[in-house]
Specification:
This protein is α/β, with parallel strands linked by helices and 242 residues long. The protein has helices at residues 24-28, 49-59, 105-116, 136-147, 164-179, 192-195, 219-229, 231-239; strands spanning 4-9, 31-33, 38-42, 86-90, 97-101, 151-156, 183-188, 201-204, 211-213. It is 33% helix and 18% strand.
């Protein structure tokens, strides 16, 4: 069962017309009860997935650019503008974990190298060598394999660096950790493969409210399935002269 049980907005949160409160489900407020060790947020670009994950990570005191607790490094953004409006309910309270943000992973890898220059043991938690000396996909898997042991793992588009085969490897790692009862995952993704993860609770950020959906009903799955079945038809429509 998940450690983090409920994610909700605090009543009376700022009623402003500024970002991120212009995102429909954030502006209206919500209470989301989690029922699975793996929660997956899916939605179009700009629908609020990353904003929500960033706020959750901030409330957990993880670095909003990526990392766990007590990992501090220079980044243009040091806090989430939405975190103060968010409430997390736990049982039991967990302080261990990690926030992966694909778009700023380079900054995190640089931070690890800096720390490792004074403490070589630091690299053991990331596969024994610099994350910069591995391919993008290899560095992600090194992180998942060596750094992820127990706690809450918040992952924003983890598929960004992973080939389809590596996505399968990642799902195996997730399965091993959740089966041990020591890990919970909250993921934002566009990957049709990750959306199919067995037992995951899939939540759409499209529309005015957060809603639990069947992964088979998501636009990501429908479009991928239809495109692969008849790519020529899509290309004819896409490339047709107006």
């Amino acid at each position: 069962m998940p450690f983090l049980k409920t994610i909700s907005t605090i009543p009376g949160q700022p009623a402003t017309n500024t970002y991120p409160y212009t995102i429909p489900f954030i502006g209206k407020g919500f209470q989301l009860d989690l029922h699975s060790d793996v929660t997956i947020f899916v939605g179009e670009n700009g629908s609020g997935k990353s904003t929500l994950l960033e706020a959750i990570a901030s409330k957990c005191e993880f670095h909003v650019a990526g990392g766990g607790r007590n990992q501090r490094y220079e980044h243009h953004q040091s806090e989430s503008p939405f975190a103060d409006s968010l409430r997390l309910s736990w049982f039991p309270k967990i302080t261990e974990g990690f926030f992966l943000r694909a778009e700023s992973f380079y900054n995190f890898a640089t931070y690890v190298d800096h720390i490792a220059s004074d403490d070589a043991i630091m690299l053991d938690a990331y596969g024994g060598k610099s994350l910069h000396h591995q391919s993008h996909g290899e560095s992600f898997l090194s992180l998942f394999t060596n750094r992820f042991k127990k706690g809450l793992f918040i992952l924003d588009e983890p598929e960004a660096a992973l080939s389809p085969q590596r996505q399968l490897v990642f799902m195996r790692i997730m399965h091993q950790l959740t089966q041990s009862g020591r890990a919970q995952f909250i993921i934002a993704t566009h990957s049709p493969m990750l959306l199919c993860y067995p037992g995951a609770e899939v939540i759409s950020t499209d529309g005015d409210t957060l809603s639990v959906v069947d992964y088979r009903d998501t636009e990501h799955i429908r479009l991928a399935r239809d495109f692969l079945a008849k790519p020529e038809q899509y290309f004819r429509q896409l490339f047709a002269e107006e």
